[in-house]
Each structure stands twice: as C-alpha cells, then as structure tokens.
Design a protein that fits this description.
Elements: E1 24-29, H1 30-33, H2 40-50, E2 54-60, E3 70-77, E4 81-82, E5 85-86, E6 101-107, E7 109-115, E8 121-127, E9 131-134, E10 139-144, E11 150-157, H3 165-170, E12 174-179, E13 182-187
Antiparallel strand pairs: 1-2, 2-3, 3-11, 4-5, 6-9, 6-11, 7-8, 7-10, 12-13
Length: 193
C-alpha cells in the first residue's frame, strides 16, 4: 500500500521550558490520576484542601498514528508529591509491545521508571542532556524528583499505540518515593500482577 506524500514541516521547541508551539496540549490533574498514587487518602485530602492540582502536561505534535510516522512530544511534570510519592505520568505499555521509545531530558531532574509484564522494575535517572532508551516490552512512566519542572522530549514509532489500561488496573510493582530527601524505590501495596 502506498502512503500519501506528506509535506515536510518543523515545530518550535523551547529548550528551557519544554513547550512546543502549536502543539496539541494534554493536561493531567490530580483528579485524573487520583487512583494512580498509592496514598489515595493523601490524594483526596489534597483535592479537598488545595483543589485540583496540575501534575503534568504533554505537548504533542499532531501526526497520524500510523506505520512510517515518528510521533513526538514533550512532557512537563510539575514538582510535588502526593503523600511521599513524587508527581509522575500515568505510564503505559505500547499496544504493539515490540515498539521502543527515546526520551531526551530538557530541564529539571527525574527518573524514567520501566516495568516488564512480570513486574521487574528499573529506574533510569534523567536530567538535562540525558538520552534514555525504552526498549520494547517495557511499560514506562516518568517521575519528577526535583524542585523544578522536569521536561523531556519523547519520540516513538507511529503505530505503537498506548495501553494505559494495564497500568491503571495493575499499577507499577515499585513506587518512587521521598525517603529522607532522597528518591527511593519501595514496593507498591496496590500492585496486582
């Protein structure tokens, strides 16, 4: 099958903030993610006392989600915690598990957290200039462990798809929390295999 000829284009990326001009913006607030954090009572308390805080934003360059395309976006995770757990993205597998992804740190600091279907967890520290590789078969999420916004650029094959449902149901087996001022992995009491 032949693919339609697409016009070349460019996007403008602010390397300091991670904002892409003219991108589609997805905003995730605490109410969107209240069940993603282990300390659900803390999430409900924050919602009641402070309101619906912004956890992260995604600036997605609009492209067809199909084979042959390279989708790309930036994500900005704002600093903060819910209980002891740092602000994070929802996390996902790719629908086509054999697809990889690359992240490039732009600002701030955090972790790329990866998990196999069997529950093996790995953490890759990230900062400005870090290039992190998400191999095929790994679920992945990012976590802001610093005091400033953590921003990164992501690129992945256009036919990868996103499976958020598995992580919404099972969670990650390990969580990244603040212990004595340091990011530390602990077992997730809500993880279901």
């Amino acid at each position: 099958m032949s693919q339609a000829l697409m016009e070349p284009f460019s996007s403008q990326l602010n390397l300091e903030t991670g904002v892409i001009a003219q991108a589609q913006i997805i905003r995730r607030t605490l109410s969107d993610m209240r069940t993603m954090f282990a300390d659900r009572a803390a999430a409900e308390r924050i919602l009641a006392e402070e309101g619906d805080r912004l956890i992260y934003e995604v600036y997605a360059v609009p492209l067809p989600e199909e084979e042959g395309q390279i989708l790309h976006s930036t994500t900005i995770i704002y600093p903060g915690r819910v209980g002891d757990e740092f602000h994070m993205t929802k996390g996902h597998f790719h629908e086509k598990r054999a697809r990889a992804e690359i992240y490039v740190g732009l600002a701030g600091e955090g972790y790329l957290v990866l998990q196999s279907e069997e529950g093996e967890v790995r953490g890759v520290p990230m900062q400005r200039g870090t290039i992190a590789y998400v191999p095929p078969l790994w679920a992945h999420r990012t976590v802001n462990t610093g005091a400033t916004p953590f921003a990164f650029l992501a690129a992945w094959p256009g036919d990868s798809g996103h499976d958020y449902g598995t992580i919404e149901q099972t969670g990650f087996a390990r969580l990244l929390v603040n212990r004595d001022g340091q990011p530390t992995f602990v077992d997730n009491p809500h993880w279901r295999r």
